[in-house]
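User: Fold this, then the next.

Assistant: Folding the first:
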Amino acid sequence: MEARRLRKDPDTRRAEIVRHARDVFAQGGYAETGLAEVADAADVSKGLVYHYFPEGRPELFAAVCEDLIAELSARLRSAAAVPFSPARRMEQVLAALFGFFDENPEAFRILFRDSLGSRERHVEAAAAAAWACAAGVLGEVLSAASSGEGEMRDSSELLAASHGILGFAVAAIDLALEGHVDAETAWRVSCEYATVGLK
């Protein structure tokens, strides 16, 4: 007699598909991964994957990114909340950023490598959301540091500075993950760059 498949709560089933998709995208990359591989890994039909993600692979990839962004955001916000000087808070936020991707190199691939140049709406939006999340926390640290001191009062200056710091840090993380520099050096140099003018 054939075993009956257990019906799962829709939210539980969707979360399982996303979890398996994260592993599959991490191994094969977005461009080389299809829904069939995700369905196999999740032990569900391809039709069920489409049931939860009607727009297919880009929508599923975006859901994976959303989960990663939530994890990254929680880590960065916790680091930004430490009651230290602005320079020390910036170092803590960068340590959280570097630590997250050191522990989850597949997350870096998904958020900052695979999503670049995809030309797919969901994927580009996910990449922009990841960038905005990290830059936003960096901007909050800079804003708190400059309030009352008259430095970088203009929101456009804060925006440019936070995105510049993030760009520097992302490039340094990429170098570390590729083995070109050690992670400690990459983090230290990023901190030196990011804390110029902070006390």
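Now the next one, as you asked:
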Amino acid sequence: MNEANRKLNYIYTYACREDEWPLCALEQRSLFGKDSGSKILESPLQIDPSRSPFITGRLDVIYEGRCLQDIREQVTGLNLMGSSFKVIVDKQHSEDPEFLKIGFEQRRAIEREVGSNIQGTAELTNPDRILGVLILGGRWLFGEHFKNEAVWLRHQKKPQSYSTALSTRVARAVVNIAVPDPEGVSVIDPCCGIGNVLVEALSMGIDIVGRDINPLVTRGARENIAHFGLVGEVTLGAIQDVTASYDVAIIDMPYNLCSVISAEDQLSMLQSAARIAGRVVIITIEPLDSIIVRAGFVIADRCIIRKGMFARQVIVGHLPVQGRGSSRESSVFRHL
């Protein structure tokens, strides 16, 4: 579109159930450094909308105005010759009272009015580009719209499953919380189970390895990874035996009847995590704050995920930054 120098911001639209909001808000804080408290978040940061299970789309703002006339005049300078396009009015995610009153026919009229001023080929069925109009805080915004491809939905159908494993939706959000910026970040999931976290991370191109003490689930994790055409390392063994170093560890603490562990074992696991990684995301059904602190981590953020009567905590921790020597290590914590 060759309009990059004119983009003002990125508008992210969200959809989640009420009981999912705490996890969605924690993901927002990790990715953007803030949570919106609503179904719209505006940021100068560009994130692939398909990373999140909660983002429905992203509007890359090109023009901004005080009214429809401002947008109509500005789009006359938009040349899309060689590309087909479709204009949509996003009433669903607007919070502007006046905009919400706009009916179906008026929305279609706005789409036609804006689209007729753009140089290019309008195509309603299968356009090359989707262009969006949105009102936010009284501002009329126009830009290119990118939708979430819901990659995580495909991962629900896997050959191996485990009753207590994180859902693919939760696993994907946890990965984003643990790794806001994947570039150059190494990750370990030392209690990987059947690999839901691994699949989500690998599908986002994140450098992650898995490990578990159960040979049955490690085989299942490898099978699930291969099923989706992904490549990842899964080894058998305890976190205490890991010798390599990583930027981040994601730990879904064992809790079912086959994996009961004592407070001493929990402390040993988290001390091992502190030895091999500077940042950690812990999923637990038990109170672990005192153990996390004893292991050397600072608790930076958290949320509770509820499903009926069942509740999990997602806790974000890191080692004190002054204890991590290199600038590379310090950069991992810039979102905290």
